[in-house]
Design goal:
By secondary structure, the protein is an alpha/beta fold. Helix content is 37%, strand content 25%. The two termini are 39 Å apart.
Length: 274
Amino acid sequence: KGNGVCLSANTRAATKQMEFQLKMGLTPLKTNMSTNSYLIKVGVVEAMIVRKPVKNLHLAVLPPAGKVRVTAPLSMKEDAIRTLVATKIGWIKKQQAKFAGQARQTRREYISGESHYFLGKRYRLEVVTEQARPTVSLKANGRMILSVRPGSSRAKREEVLIEWYRAELREIVTELLSKWQNKIGVQLDTWRIMRMKTRWGTCNHKAGRITLNLELAKKPLSCIEYVTVHELVHLIEKKHNERFQKLMTKYLPKWRSAKEELNRFILAHEEWEY
């Protein structure tokens, strides 16, 4: 009333959570009107807790270093979060070991001599300059020609190559969707390509939309097909349960080998934070 400030439910919950952190001797790393973050340790696992106005708890192990992030509702009790982490320690260590064993590229500068991948094949980048529209082309001898205007920055060279990857992947996925929507008997409302940090693809069942990771352009065609089919099957079965696995086997009998190949393939350099 009057000139007083009325706090939202989310803000009150966030303030209450920060007070709890201070009481427990924890240090909030970030606090704003709708989210705050802090570190906890459960056994040998250190986890970043991110409080947000969400309904469900989500645990993720993030590449490349295997950092653990738990996204939790603002009102969830600390004990419930710790219990989740404790019950998942075995899985967390397994994911961290997997990331530690994966080959990963160093940071790309988009200069001549670097290795870049397309559809699972390694190409040697050759940067040429000319006063013309930037282009990317592949040569039979394993060269990838990146043509840019003189004086183009690293950011510009990266942008040109990324947009080329996006266009190539869009063409490939368009053909795959035409084939697999008919086979599976589903129909998307929309689909998109994005740069994602922790998933090869996602499916929004209610919206009838799938999202595919731009990095798939660098992977073998069998891997792109696997992820596409995987997300389309989620329109029928949302969970990774026995029914989902049976549907995958029905439509793509060798899906497990494609999944293994995808996880073995060299990963791009990324500097990800919580």
